[in-house]
Each structure stands twice: as structure tokens, then as C-alpha cells.
From TrEMBL:
Occurrences of domain Hydantoinase/oxoprolinase N-terminal (ranges): 5-177
Recorded superkingdom: Eukaryota
UniProt protein name: Hydantoinase/oxoprolinase
Organism: Aspergillus luchuensis (strain CBS 106.47)
Membrane-spanning segments: none
Family matches, as InterPro entries: ATPase_NBD, Hydant_A_N, Hydantoinase_A, Oxoprolinase-like, S-Me-THD-like_C, S-Me-THD_C_sf, S-Me-THD_N, S-Me-THD_N_sf
Occurrences of domain S-Me-THD N-terminal (ranges): 615-773
Boundaries of every S-Me-THD-like C-terminal domain copy: 778-983
Any one Pfam family match given in the protein's UniProt record, by short name: S-Me-THD_N
GO molecular function: hydrolase activity
All copies of domain Hydantoinase A/oxoprolinase, residue ranges: 213-396
Coiled coil (residue ranges): none
């Protein structure tokens, strides 16, 4: 007996449905010619309704009627919807609930409070009270502090008093908590006291990276009531349609989750639409029955052409889409979801065709008539020429009345077709990861715009039911199980750890409904954590299997309908004004968005530069460029600086002065973050560590006062670590640093290279632990002793070297590097805003050289002595890609390799045919930075296959290159490389913001 599955995809304009005979769908490749429909019995398209459910019902009724299939033969229904994410994107107070946040963190994480980077409007709607309580883990699994039941009880009482019913529970390093000793135990205590609370544990939502995981957890909690209400409506609708079968929702990664799970974790269904289209297209084309890697073309792209836009995804050999970069914004909130990488361009069936009145040139889009196509297009009696008119006039499709477009000149048709072809080719090139030709799967209602052969496309497949590929993708979606944890491999059999994770992932897939005979592991990813000495790695394992066939009449959702009928009602949706609670008074983090960047002037008065939020935004971008692959991300430190702008703990304003303005006999202190960025991004600092280290080292050195502070390194997050300290002590930051870039060790500070002492040197954590290196035989030995203490304190501490007088600092600092970061950041933001050449803008600010433009094709990583070491290989862009890039590009045809030890060490050309023969073009101490297409720096830990990048080089300060002492420590031999320094060119002293913008009162 045949049985059927229904897939539904709810878009912003249309709701698509398809019904699938799963027996026919499992035909082997040799049988595909007998059923080109791949088991699709019928498909339907209907307008999306405001309540979503009505449109779904209409589409399901329609496909059942078309296929003449009784409801009792349907064994499952899978729905993909954007309903939940729309509530967040639209910041709808009627559909979002207030969320209280409880952090299990001990004394840590105060430096970046919850909701720190939420847009103001969304924070106003969602933001509830925040509680910091004992709990959380160190990276090695030790407790930061035991959970305190009394603190939990007090927090729950306050949450109840605020009339809040949803809680985001976030424990430091909860992905390490395999036994549930933290978040799970705390949730149990909370529900014992208040059973009506909805508590979302962050470990169920995301992986390492506290702020991003917490943001996702908060968003998930805010839409819980909406999700339960909506899914309850889906279940009741199925009941009314006599569909006695389980309901599933499609997830961001293209797999299924049960309705019950989706009701608890709706955020995992946010971006299922593009994935459904991709998997549906691959299925309809029969690629699920053929090896993708065995095809002539080694790359498979799916192009979904709608009325307004064209979306392109890349299909991996696993059958799933290529993932997007690390961070994804949802409604302006930074999160870390495994969602597909989708490139969207303004080309569709409704794209307007423009003819320049003066020159008569023809252009296509990007504007579109959208859903007015059947009223506005020429072939339908309208007055607007669209891409559909070009298709019909060219004889490539029969739509409307062809006679209405017979008057179009051949030259207009030719130019418009050439424009459409060029847009499609550019889009394909942008998604390719090699020079190999591609197999293109073309789907979507607007796919008729594909009229001419495309360069680099070996085969174009337009499968049956291509205009309902998204619904087919939902119907055939598989079930996954994923393990995403941090494991400490030191002293353990790595193979056994990985195998255990594989088995755990496979079992998770089976428990979620996968056929146990079909489950297999499709992805294993090991990501070493930077600077960590205990071989800690993030381990991501994914197993996938087809949906097990349920027994006839098995309605797994009957209990769900009953449960939800008592669990959710409309009163759970309140306007923001109805809830009395405390919203953290934080300012927006996107301050430059509403400014005219060309006219913005920093506040510099009487030779003192007072920092604003906009200045911090520019500096954060600039310090990333100067980080040369290391230094840790600037984003978290940027948020901490924003918090300090209005902190009650600040005794003065953040400000920057020239080193020359300080008296030679005055005392300068140092203080920066020391350890692993992967730890500080999870166990966020407490605000107190830097000042604790500075206070102790000042006392040890015998000083009674100090007048200023300078950064140890300008590169990465440490380039901004001095600003909160400036506000706390009411002292200025000197416009400069001790490296002019980022380096991996304390001994790379220029005063220490030239013989001045590091010791006594202090490390401190947030618990009051302070470690001291009073004296050591060498600077390298100081580094070794400091690192041992840092590891014992959780691999993330503050460090402060012995204070020095300003005469020494002036002689050995790299001047004006805070200004340099500001100018770099401003140049990148300006170019991005005006869509002009980012590389050219950078070099107008800082003298440099474009070393390479290309795509990353290989990244190798390992951890050695606490450092992330490895090599990145970049291949050149194709000729078409070079022509279509707005920025400068290099014309080099060889590959480029960049070895790194946290920071990038050198860059060399290689011929793939002779990989051992390298032509070194840039080495440390000169700066090598890898930039993404938006101009933002990409750290060595963020490098990944397929990224399109520009590699730039900038000359180091003469303190590094003009003396053998500088080259001995900071040059190639200081990193064990058997090569000499290769000069990039002359050094250009950075401009001074203070000198350029000073106003005398």
C-alpha cells in the first residue's frame, strides 16, 4: 500500500504545498527514467494568509484534491515557516514576550551584560531583569562556583514579582556540561519553586560563545508563547482536515524536528526556506540517488529565481547546503546559527528593464514589480517592461499575450538578455569555491529568465515541479542528530572521543524519528581552541537519516494539542507597557548607521581626544586590521567600552592624548587581556581584572601614583582594553602601543625587546586570585611562567607589567596607532557605505600593498604549546570575478600560502604543481591582514574554506626592522622560521587624530 508525505513551505507572498509518494521517491538511479516526477503526485501554490494557518489548510486541501488521495493515507506533514522570525524582525510587541536572563557565572560576565547588542526597540520589548548567580564552568570542566539555591530562589521571586513567565538560563561553558550539573540542575530548582515558568537552557540552543548563544536563547524564549500557539493551531488544523499523522517542522539546516521540539526551540526553524528549496531541487533532479562528487562537475549550485530576487546556495557532498559564516544577525541581533549560506541578487521574473534615455543603454533591475507582475508587465496589458516580457518576446516562454511585446527592438532584447546572463554568471561565480564548472539546479517561478548558456556551467537542470521545490524539500527532509561540544583531549584517545560523539549523534537522530537502518554520520568538525594548552577542541558531529515510516493512524501530536490547549492562551501576549520590569539602560551599538560619515568630526579639545561611541566603532574595525590574524576579536571589547561610556564606576571620560604631552618623569602603566580568546568569549570578564592587576603591580613596583596608560598591543581586542581603564582611573590613554600590531607573547613589547624590564609582572582573575612573576632569567622565561599561572586561572586573565616612566615609553612605543586604527576603521566604514573601493580607501590612510585577492581553498590547524598554528592556502579569482569586484584585485595566478601562529607569519606565492618552491613576498614583523569582502579583518581562527578575501601588507615600525634586536624577537627567526625578513617597503608614520581635529578653547 502506498503512503504519502505532505510538505508545506510558507513564504512571505506564497504558501507552497506538495504531496509525495514515498515508495516512488526511493527509486534507484536506473529507475528514475520511469518516474521523472520523483513521486510528486501534485503541488499547489496559494497566497500566504495573515494567520498563516488558513493558507496552509488551503494548500493542503488543494494538493489532496489534485492528487485524489484520501487524508488517512498521509503519514506525515512537514511545514517550513518564517512566521517566528518575522515577529523578531518586525519587533512586534504583540508576538514577543519579556524575557528574564539568569546567568550562571560566579563573579564573571558583568563586562558585557545581556541585551548589550540588541537594537533599542527590540531591547525595549524583550528586555527583562538580569540576574548574575553562582555557577558555570571553567574550560577544563572545573566549577567557577557551586550553584547557590538561595540565589536561585531570590531570582525566581524577583521574576515572579515582575510578572515575567519566560527565562533564558545561560551558564558559562554550558556546552561542556555533559552531566547537566549546571543549567539542568538550576532549571529544576526554578521549576520546583515556580512550575509555570518557561525556562530555556542555552546549552539546548547554541555552542561556545556566550553572547551569541545567550542572544539566541533570549530570542527563543521571547517567541515561545507564539510558537506554542502557532503550532497548536497547526495541529488543530490537521485534526480538522482528518490528517491523523505526525506533524514536523523543517529546521535551518534542512532537517526535520517534531512539532513538540519546535514548540520548545522555535529559533531552530528560522531560516528553513532556502534550505528547503535547495534539498528539494537536489531531490527532484535525482542527485540524492547519484554521487555528487562523481559527476563531471564537482560543484552543485541551486538557483531559486523568484519574482524579485534570485537566491543561490551551494550543495555539499553531504546533500546539505554550505553553511554561512560564524555570526548571523537575526532582527539586528548577533547570533551563531548553522544556517545555509545564501547569496541574493536583484533579479527575478518581475525585474524592471531600464532604457537610458540619453545613450539608449539597457539595464536589468534590481527593482521589480514583484507580485504586481500580472498587472504591470507588458504581456499582461501593463506599461512596465520586465524580464518576463524579454523572455516572452524572445520566444522562450508562452505567458500573457506575446503580441504586446512584438514591438520591442532586437537590440533591446539582445542587451537585456546579455544583462540577465551577466547577473546570473556573476552570482554563480560568487558562490563557486574552485575553477571547476558547476551543475546548476534551476528552480522557482521566475526561472524562465534563464535563456542563454552560462559560462562555467557544465549542466543546467530544470527539474519537474521546480516551482514548488521548497515544498518538496520540506516533504523529503531527513532527521538529524547533532553533537556540538567542547572536549578536552589531553590524556585521552582522540579517536575514541570522536567515535563516541558519532554514536551519540546517530542515537540522537534515531530518538528524533530517523530510521535506524538509514542513519549515517555526514559531518565531523574539530576546531582547536586558541591559546589552550590542554588540547581543548570544539567537536561538531552531525548524523542524518530518512524519516522512519510511522504506523498508520499514529498521531503523535494528539497529546500536543491537549497539552497546548491548557498551556497557551492569548493573554500571554502583552504590550510592552503592560509589564513592569527593569530594562537595562544600554545604548545602541550601531552608532554610525544614522550619521553622515563624511562630515563626522571627533571631539578633540585642548589636545585631548574624548572618545565617543562612533569613535569606538571605527577603532574596533581598525584594531581588527592591525591584529594580523591574532589579538582576539575586537567585538566583545567594543561592547565593554560602550558599557563603560555610561558606567557609574567611571571616574572620568575615556580620552586619548599624544605621548609627547606627558612629562618624562611621570609613570605609565600597562594592562591587557592575556590567555585564550575562545575562553574570554565565553567566560566574559567581570570588569575588575585589569584594575586588580594594575593596582598590585603598582604596589609591588613601589610607585604611589601613575598618570597614563598605553596598550600592550594595538591589534585585536587588546587595542581597546585601555579605554575602560582610562575611565576607571580618570587617566588618559596614550596614542600608541608597544607592538604596532598583535604578537602572541609579552616579550614582544618593544621596551622589553630593547632591554627594559617586564617584571614584576602580575596576572589576575575575577575571583581575587593574583599571580606574580617577580623575576626571571629571560623575557621568554617570564612568558612561560605567566602562561602556567594563566592556565591555572582558567586560561583567561588580565596581565600588567611593571610600570615605566614616560621617557622610556616615548622612546620605544609605536606612536599614533590608536589614531591609525580610527582612520582605518573610518575608511572601511565610509567605503562600505558609499560602495567604493575598500582597499583603495585603506591605502589612502595607511601605506600598504595588496598582496593577493582570491578564495580560501584549504585551512590546516593544530594547537602547539597553547597556540593555534596552521596554514591557509588561497587560490586566485576567476577572470569574471576580478572584473566584477568593486575593489582593487591582484592579478597573480599562483596560489598564496599564509602560515600562522595565532598571527600571520609570512605570505608566499606557490605554484600548485611545485608546492615546495615558495616565493616569499612578506614576513613578520611587517603586518599581514586578511580582509573579507566587507573590509573587516578575518582572524586566523575564523579562516574557512570558500571565503573570498583580500590579503594586504603594511610595513612595520623601524623599531622592529631597523635593529637586529627587533628582528631577532619579532622577525621570522623569532618564530623558528628559517628565512630572512623580506621588506615590504618603507614605513609611513600614522596620522594623528589629535593633530588634525584639535580645537583650542
Amino acid at each position: 500500500m502506498a503512503f504519502y508525505r505532505i510538505g508545506v513551505d510558507v513564504g512571505g507572498t506564497n504558501t507552497d504545498a506538495a504531496i509525495l509518494n514515498t515508495a516512488a521517491a526511493t527509486l534507484h538511479e536506473q529507475d528514475l527514467h520511469r518516474d521523472r516526477q520523483r513521486g510528486v503526485c501534485a503541488s499547489s501554490k496559494t497566497p500566504t494568509t495573515a494567520d498563516v494557518t488558513s493558507g496552509i489548510c488551503t494548500a493542503i486541501v488543494d494538493v489532496l484534491a489534485k492528487a485524489q488521495i484520501p487524508a488517512h493515507e498521509v503519514r506525515s506533514v512537514a511545514i517550513g515557516t518564517t512566521h517566528f522570525v518575522n515577529a523578531v524582525v518586525e519587533a512586534d510587541p504583540c508576538r514577543l514576550n519579556k524575557v528574564a536572563v539568569v546567568r550562571l557565572c560566579g563573579p564573571y560576565t558583568r563586562a558585557a551584560p545581556p541585551f548589550s547588542d540588541f537594537p533599542p526597540r527590540l531591547r525595549e520589548i524583550i528586555g527583562g531583569p538580569v540576574f548574575y548567580v553562582d555557577g558555570g564552568l571553567e574550560i577544563d570542566g572545573r566549577e567557577i562556583a557551586p550553584i547557590c539555591p538561595q540565589q536561585i530562589e531570590d531570582a525566581v521571586s524577583a521574576i515572579e514579582k515582575a510578572r515575567i513567565t519566560t527565562v533564558a538560563l545561560v551558564g558559562v561553558f554550558s556546552p561542556l556540561d555533559h552531566g547537566g550539573a549546571n543549567e539542568a540542575a538550576c532549571k529544576k530548582l526554578m521549576l520546583q519553586q515556580s512550575p509555570d515558568l518557561s525556562v530555556v537552557c542555552s546549552a539546548d540552543i547554541g555552542s561556545v560563545g556566550l553572547l551569541e548563544r545567550e542572544n539566541a536563547t533570549i530570542l527563543n524564549a521571547s517567541i515561545l508563547a507564539l510558537a506554542k500557539k502557532t503550532i497548536r493551531a497547526f495541529c488543530l488544523a490537521m485534526k480538522n482536515l482528518q490528517l491523523k499523522c505526525p506533524l514536523y517542522l523543517t529546521q535551518n539546516d534542512g532537517t526535520l524536528t517534531s512539532a513538540a521540539m519546535a514548540a520548545e526551540r522555535p529559533i531552530q526553524t528560522f531560516a528553513s526556506g532556502p534550505t528547503n528549496s535547495l534539498t528539494g531541487a537536489a531531490y527532484l533532479a535525482g542527485l540524492d540517488q547519484r554521487s555528487i562528487t562523481s559527476r563531471t562537475a564537482t560543484q552543485v549550485l541551486v538557483m531559486d529565481v523568484g519574482g524579485t530576487t534570485t537566491d543561490v546556495c551551494a550543495l555539499l557532498p553531504s546533500g546539505f547546503p554550505r553553511k554561512a559564516p560564524n555570526f548571523v544577525e537575526v532582527g539586528g541581533v548577533r547570533t551563531a546559527f548553522p544556517i545555509p549560506e545564501v547569496l541574493s541578487v536583484g533579479l527575478g521574473g518581475g525585474s524592471r528593464i531600464h532604457i537610458d534615455g540619453a545613450e539608449g543603454t539597457v539595464s536589468v533591475g534590481p527593482d521589480s514589480v514583484g507580485y504586481h507582475l500580472t498587472q504591470d508587465a507588458l504581456v499582461f496589458g501593463g506599461n512596465t517592461m520586465t524580464s518576463t516580457d524579454i523572455v516572452v518576446a524572445s520566444g522562450k516562454a508562452e505567458l500573457g499575450e506575446r503580441s504586446r511585446v512584438k514591438h520591442l527592438p532586437i537590440t533591446v532584447l539582445a542587451e537585456a538578455r546579455a544583462g540577465i546572463k551577466k547577473i546570473l554568471e556573476r552570482t554563480i561565480d560568487a558562490m563557486k569555491v574552485s575553477d571547476q564548472p558547476v551543475t546548476l539546479l534551476l528552480v522557482g517561478g521566475g526561472s524562465i529568465v534563464y535563456m542563454d548558456a552560462l559560462e562555467g556551467v557544465a549542466e543546467c537542470i530544470v527539474p519537474p515541479h521546480h516551482d514548488s521545490a521548497n515544498a518538496v524539500g520540506a516533504a523529503i527532509a531527513k532527521v538529524s542528530g547533532e553533537v556540538d561540544v567542547i572536549e578536552i583531549l589531553e590524556g585521552r584517545d582522540e579517536g575514541a572521543v570522536v567515535e563516541a560523539a558519532k554514536q551519540q549523534a546517530m542515537q540522537a537522530a534515531i530518538e528524533r524519528g530517523a530510521d535506524k537502518d538509514d542513519v549515517s554520520v555526514v559531518e565531523v568538525e574539530k576546531i582547536p581552541l586558541q591559546y589552550v594548552t590542554n588540547k581543548a577542541v570544539r567537536l561538531v558531529v552531525k548524523a542524518v537519516g530518512k524519516l522512519a515510516t510511522p504506523a498508520p493512524g499514529d498521531s503523535a501530536e494528539e497529546h500536543l494539542v491537549s497539552w497546548m490547549s491548557t498551556d497557551v492562551d492569548d493573554s500571554s501576549f502583552k504590550e510592552a507597557s503592560e509589564v513592569e520590569t527593569v530594562v537595562p539602560a544600554l545604548i545602541s551599538t550601531k552608532h554610525s548607521a544614522s550619521l553622515d560619515l563624511d562630515t563626522y568630526v571627533p571631539e578633540v579639545t585642548d589636545q585631548v581626544w574624548y572618545l565617543s561611541a562612533v569613535d569606538l566603532e571605527f577603532i574596533a574595525t581598525g584594531t581588527g586590521v592591525l591584529g594580523t590574524g591574532g589579538g582576539g576579536p575586537s567585538y566583545l571589547q567594543y561592547l565593554q567600552c560602550l558599557d563603560w561610556l555610561q558606567s557609574p564606576d567611571a571616574k572620568g571620560r575615556m580620552r586619548v592624548v599624544s605621548p609627547d604631552s606627558m612629562n618624562d618623569s611621570g609613570v605609565c602603566v600597562f594592562g591587557s587581556w592575556y590567555g585564550a580568546p575562545s575562553v574570554s568569549g565565553e567566560r566574559i570578564p567581570a570588569k575588575t581584572e585589569l584594575t586588580t592587576a594594575i593596582d598590585h603591580v603598582v604596589r609591588l613596583s613601589g610607585h604611589t601614583h601613575f598618570e597614563g596608560i598605553i596598550a600592550d598591543e594595538i591589534g585585536g581586542g587588546n587595542g581597546m582594553s585601555t579605554f575602560p581603564t582610562s575611565a576607571y582611573y580618570d587617566i588618559p590613554v596614550l596614542d600608541g602601543d608597544l607592538m604596532g600590531r598583535a604578537y602572541p607573547t609579552m616579550e614582544h613589547g618593544t621596551p622589553y625587546v630593547y632591554g627594559h624590564p617586564i617584571t614584576p609582572c602580575v596576572v589576575a582573575d575575577a575571583k581575587g586570585n593574583v599571580g606574580v612573576v617577580l623575576k626571571a632569567e629571560s623575557n621568554r622565561r617570564v612568558e612561560e611562567l605567566l602562561r602556567c599561572q594563566c592556565v591555572n586561572l582558567g586560561i583567561s586573565t588580565a596581565v600588567a607589567a611593571v610600570p615605566l616612566t614616560f621617557d622610556i615609553v616615548k622612546k620605544y612605543c609605536i606612536p599614533n596607532t590608536v589614531s591609525q586604527a580610527w582612520y582605518l576603521g573610518r575608511a572601511i566604514h565610509r567605503a562600505r557605505r558609499s560602495k567604493t573601493d575598500i582597499i583603495k580607501a585603506i591605502f589612502e590612510t595607511t601605506l600598504g600593498k595588496l598582496l593577493y585577492s582570491g578564495k580560501i581553498i584549504d585551512v590546516k590547524r593544530d594547537v602547539s604549546r597553547g597556540y593555534t598554528v596552521g596554514q591557509c592556502t588561497i587560490a586566485p579569482l576567476s577572470g569574471e570575478e576580478r572584473e566584477n569586484m568593486d575593489n582593487q584585485v591582484s592579478a597573480e595566478t599562483r596560489h598564496l600560502v599564509i602560515p600562522f601562529q595565532n598571527e600571520f607569519l609570512y605570505a608566499a606565492y606557490i605554484d600548485p604543481a611545485y608546492p615546495t618552491a615558495q616565493q616569499v613576498i612578506c614576513t613578520v614583523p611587517d603586518l599581514i591582514s586578511v580582509l573579507g569582502q566587507d573590509g573587516e579583518a578575518i582572524g586566523s581562527q575564523e579562516l574557512r574554506y570558500g571565503l573570498r578575501v583580500n590579503v594586504i601588507g603594511m610595513a612595520a615600525h623601524p623599531l622592529w626592522t631597523g635593529d637586529e634586536r627587533g628582528l631577532r624577537v619579532g622577525g621570522p627567526r623569532g618564530f623558528g622560521l628559517n628565512m630572512e625578513w623580506t621588506s615590504l617597503g618603507p614605513y609611513q608614520a600614522p596620522r594623528s587624530v589629535i593633530a588634525e581635529f584639535n580645537q583650542q578653547l
